[in-house]
């Protein structure tokens, strides 16, 4: 089992940048495909970005394409979400998640989330 802890959230003005980190413990992160999700107030949780175990392939949602980048450093057991050109509609709790094996399908482990607030 792996434990995930997100950090890096906060308040930022529109147009600004933040980098979220997700630190894993308990097992080697390289065993898991990783993803970032977000949930805005009153909305359903949505997938933001995914990355394969090696980091060789990534996916980002259309809503954040060109602005968000997912990456990982397996030597540090950490996954990142670099967010730039932030918009008020990016305001949400951002969750890190891990999945055994491939990146498609339901996630197996979740962090508790970090809040990102983008002011206009």
Describe this structure in words.
The chain is an all-beta fold and 120 residues long. The protein has strands spanning 3-7, 10-13, 18-25, 32-39, 46-51, 58-60, 68-73, 78-83, 92-100, 109-110, 114-119. The strands form two sheets. Strands 2, 4, 5, 6, 9, 10 and 11 form a seven-stranded mixed β-sheet that branches. Strands 1-3-8-7 form a four-stranded antiparallel β-sheet, with no helix packed on it. β7 and β8 form a beta hairpin. The model has no long low-confidence stretch (mean pLDDT 95).
- DSSP helix fraction: under 10%
Mass-distribution shape:
globular
Largest sheet: 7 strands, mixed
Helix/strand-derived category reads: mainly beta
Order of helices and strands: EEEEEEEEEEE
Radius of gyration equals 13 Å
> How is the quaternary structure best described?
single chain
User: Total number of β-strand segments?
Assistant: 11
The number of helical runs is 0
Percent of sequence in beta strands: over 45%
Q: Which consecutive residue ranges, at least 5 long each, have pLDDT under 50?
A: none
First-residue to last-residue Cα separation: 40 Å
The gist of it:
Helices cover 0% and strands 52% of the residues. By secondary structure, it is mainly β. The mean pLDDT is 95.
Key traits:
120 residues, mainly beta, seven-stranded mixed β-sheet, four-stranded antiparallel β-sheet, 11 strands
Layout of secondary structure:
Layout (H helix, E strand, L loop, with lengths): L2 E5 L2 E4 L4 E8 L6 E8 L6 E6 L6 E3 L7 E6 L4 E6 L8 E9 L8 E2 L3 E6 L1
Parallel strand pairs: 2-11
Antiparallel strand pairs: 1-3, 3-8, 4-5, 4-9, 5-6, 7-8, 9-10, 9-11
């Amino acid at each position: 089992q792996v434990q995930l802890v997100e950090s890096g959230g906060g308040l930022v003005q529109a147009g600004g940048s933040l980098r979220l980190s997700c630190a894993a413990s308990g097992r080697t992160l390289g065993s898991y495909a990783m993803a970032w999700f977000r949930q805005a107030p009153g909305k359903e949780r949505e997938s933001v970005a995914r990355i394969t175990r090696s980091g060789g392939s990534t996916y980002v949602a259309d809503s954040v394409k060109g602005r968000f980048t997912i990456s990982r450093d397996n030597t540090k057991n950490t996954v990142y979400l670099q967010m730039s050109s932030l918009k008020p509609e990016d305001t949400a709790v951002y969750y890190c998640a891990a999945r055994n094996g491939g990146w498609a399908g339901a996630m197996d482990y979740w962090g508790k989330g970090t809040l990102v607030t983008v002011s206009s």
